[in-house]
Design brief:
Layout: H1 10-40, H2 48-83, H3 87-114, H4 116-122, H5 127-140, H6 144-159, H7 163-187, H8 192-214, H9 232-266, H10 269-305, H11 309-336, H12 338-343, H13 349-362, H14 368-381, H15 385-406, H16 414-441, H17 443-448
Amino acid sequence: MANDFSRGKVWRNIIGQSLPLMLAQLVQLLYNVVDRVYIGHLSGTDTLALTGIGLVFPLTTLIAAFTNLFGSGATPLFSIARGAKQEDRAEKILGNTFALLFLTSLVLFLLCYIFRRPVLYLFGASDASYGYADDYLRIYLFGTSFSMLSTGLNGFINAQGFPRIGMLTTLLGAVLNLILDPVFIFGLRMGVSGAALATVLSQMISCLWVLRFLTGKKAVLTLKRKNLKPDWKLAREIMSLGLSGFIMQGTNCLVQVACNATLKTFGGDLYVGVMTVLNSVREILSLPVSGLTSGSQPVLGYNYGARRYDRVKQGIRFTAVIGILYTMLAWMAVICLPHVLLSVFVDDAAMMEAGERALHLYFFGFFFMAFQFTGQSSFTALGYSKQAIFFSLFRKAVIVTPLTLLLPRLGLGVDGVFLAEPVSNAVGGLACFVTMYFVLYRKLDAKSGGVPADGAEQS
């Protein structure tokens, strides 16, 4: 069978999936990060334009949460079905995921567009920053369906063993975004509205590419009209497993709202802009470990479905070790090069000064994130939805959000907002990983029952 993840070295299968996926995620990240880079250096806005984009983050994160609810929930089920040779079920999962993503995107567009003014003020907008936020959001929302479909369905391309095609999904759109951003922002003097328009057009190209591949001849399993009618029993399975990804993004939205509102109170628009920059740096630095653990999921899920439990354990060990080593290096980069990281997004002296201290606080002990990523991805890949949901909720809703609201009021001011993140990384990350080890990893020994790992027949 083509793209059989039960053969060959496990680490090679994971790397083969992860490297193109990392590049694809990097390109995907350019959609928003490039906007922030250009807007951060836009003259005559006193950093308010960057602050305005930061205020939109919670809504874009909410859209990503619903994308994860269906996309991240369906792809592990899809991989397990492929491993078990249940191709009809796998295609039905694909078709139902399309329907769920599309219908949800229409509802989100209408609600977010109609209520955007009160929501932006709730999220921490001031009279000075609201105009920039609204200029961006009212255009960005028209790309909701394109964004959800391209991101939510791209995992099915990777899960079929075509990570390079998945990379091209976002590459085409990102290249267009890179070209159109300066044209719209500076050439046509559209400012933040131009950044939003460039992003929407880019998302549209990505979406068309995904749909073209999944309905074409190169795909192993394709998107078929007969599978588009929602099967609510299957939808519940998808949402049950995807609920962890939804909660992770949904609680990110909650944290962003809490951060922006608290920073507006204790530091004003300047510190809301600083948080926008910190979020951008974090997205970039966490991308490799996120790509590694995401790339491991089809491999882990396939081998679990094929009852190759020793190979599942090998995959978990590999992702954990590489993830911890990388995040240690990323933390060192933050310590040694804070000015370089900040200058990518902003050149305002006041924001640079405030941002350097905030960066050191926010990224303290960054390597603990690797434990969270490894534990979370292992639970999700093997269908342990309850554990995945709990630890998504635990780190963000139980630890970081209350600390974000509490620490500044205990005398720490804006520093308290930035310290809440490393505390949650350490406590939540270790709790997730240790639980994964005892609940999942050690139990694979009992299931192995003499099944060979990487025997000669697999090399």
